[in-house]
């Protein structure tokens, strides 16, 4: 590993941070449903969530019209539904969900936990009406 002082510009650069451990977060939220964790650091360009779907639970078909989403299964197994048919997913499955794609999720016998990552949506801005 390089000493940060040896890397040009490193003294002024933001620092990487360990945010958690997905295994520990999943174990702690084993009885929970929904988002177990969300990326909330200020100044970020990404959004990320750790989502838990209970055994045999599901998320209805939906589409994200504006953003590509990367989905990484970190625990359990299930089925990702799509217009091309169902895809079996398990721990370690890495899935790209292009913007506009329709998908659903159904957890298997032990539930399903996955991380999603996508570009952060810009915040809303209040603007003056045209001509004002």
UniProtKB/TrEMBL annotation:
InterPro entries: RmlC-like_jellyroll (IPR014710), RmlC_Cupin_sf (IPR011051). This is AraC-type arabinose-binding/dimerisation domain-containing protein. The lineage of its organism: Bacteria, Bacillati, Actinomycetota, Actinomycetes, Kitasatosporales.
